[in-house]
Automatic annotation (TrEMBL):
<dbReference type="InterPro" id="IPR003439">
    <property type="entry name" value="ABC_transporter-like_ATP-bd"/>
</dbReference>
<dbReference type="InterPro" id="IPR050086">
    <property type="entry name" value="MetN_ABC_transporter-like"/>
</dbReference>
<keyword id="KW-0378">Hydrolase</keyword>
<keyword id="KW-1278">Translocase</keyword>
<protein>
    <submittedName>
        <fullName>Methionine import ATP-binding protein MetN 2</fullName>
        <ecNumber>3.6.3.-</ecNumber>
    </submittedName>
</protein>
<keyword id="KW-0472">Membrane</keyword>
<keyword id="KW-0067">ATP-binding</keyword>
<dbReference type="Pfam" id="PF00005">
    <property type="entry name" value="ABC_tran"/>
</dbReference>
<keyword id="KW-0029">Amino-acid transport</keyword>
<dbReference type="GO" id="GO:0005524">
    <property type="term" value="F:ATP binding"/>
</dbReference>
<keyword id="KW-0813">Transport</keyword>
<dbReference type="GO" id="GO:0006865">
    <property type="term" value="P:amino acid transport"/>
</dbReference>
<comment type="similarity">
    <text>Belongs to the ABC transporter superfamily. Drug exporter-2 (TC 3.A.1.117) family.</text>
</comment>
<dbReference type="GO" id="GO:0005886">
    <property type="term" value="C:plasma membrane"/>
</dbReference>
<dbReference type="InterPro" id="IPR041701">
    <property type="entry name" value="MetN_ABC"/>
</dbReference>
<dbReference type="GO" id="GO:0016887">
    <property type="term" value="F:ATP hydrolysis activity"/>
</dbReference>
<feature type="domain" description="ABC transporter">
    <location>
        <begin position="5"/>
        <end position="240"/>
    </location>
</feature>
Length: 261
């Protein structure tokens, strides 16, 4: 069984508009993978195809050797539990406390109330919010809300974390702290993080691989080393375009090269 997300000739139309046009690429599991593109490029549609919130018109999404469009409803529910999701606007329930928000997936999965408390406390520690269980979401900053969103997404111990513009509503410093938290969680928990973004800086900071979409078509995809080895590739150009964070990015890229050498 291959440990991989394989996106194969995916097509999705809304009326006469193609949101995805013959998109194929692979995401190696156990890494952070960025899906890049401008507004309307098809990123959210693609992300929603990964957990079948969206049904493609043609093509397949194969996860660990399994075509997810062929799963029964029961299998799909199990597969979805493997996929935590975080959102640009956090999607917290404001009439529930932080602890109750995080406990929600556990409640749905039938974890007894007595066990939920300890798990919520462990998750709060994991995201740097110890002692926040009884606080209301409205009392939190944007970065703290996203930390709650991340804790909730991780509650059912998923293998994948899907991030839909997770830092787009945050200021630059908070963005960096959330990206670094995602990178640290990916290492600690050995999960696969798929994030969509329109910001190259996000890819530079934490991604091990990326795909670039434009008007529903795939322009390029690959690991960071494959991207950097392609002298005429658009992604390489974009990665090296602005000077900001370049030194840190190149150091990280070189470290990755040493690891595979
Ligand atoms: N439910 C829908 N009904 C009709 N058109 C849709 C729907 N969802 C997406 N689209 C269209 O499909 C195209 C791709 O949208 P999508 O949301 O996947 O892009 P995106 O790259 O995520 O953009 P953004 O960053 O703005 O969210 C856009 O032209 C969008 O208007």
């Amino acid at each position: 069984m291959s440990s991989m997300i394989s996106i194969e000739a995916l097509n999705k139309r809304y009326g006469d508009k193609s949101a995805l046009l013959d998109v194929s690429f692979e995401i190696e599991t156990g890494a952070i993978f960025g899906i890049l593109g401008r507004s309307g490029a098809g990123k959210s549609t693609l992300l929603r195809c990964l957990n079948r919130l969206e049904q493609p018109d043609a093509g397949r999404v194969v996860i660990d050797g399994e075509d997810i469009n062929r799963l029964s409803l029961r299998e799909l529910r199990a597969q979805r539990r493997q996929m935590g999701m975080i959102f640009q606007h956090f999607n917290l329930l404001h009439a529930r406390t932080v602890g109750e928000n995080i406990a929600l997936p556990l409640q749905i999965a039938g974890v007894p109330a007595a066990r939920r408390g300890a798990r919520v406390d462990a998750l709060l520690t994991l995201v740097g919010l110890e002692g926040y269980a009884d606080v209301w979401p409205s009392q939190l900053s944007g970065g703290q809300k996203q930390r709650v969103g991340i804790a909730r997404a991780l509650a059912a111990e998923p293998r994948y974390l899907l991030c839909d513009e997770a830092t787009s509503a945050l200021d630059p410093d908070t963005t960096l702290s959330i990206l670094d938290l995602l990178a640290s969680l990916q290492r600690q928990l050995n999960i696969t993080v798929v994030l969509i973004t329109h910001e190259m800086a996000v890819v530079k900071r934490i991604c091990h691989g990326a795909a670039l979409l434009e008007s529903g078509r795939l322009i390029e995809s690959g690991s960071l080393s494959a991207i950097m080895a392609n002298p005429h590739g658009r992604l390489r150009q974009l990665l090296l375009q602005d000077g900001e964070a370049d030194r840190a990015f190149l150091a990280r890229y070189q470290e990755q090269l040493r690891c595979v050498a």
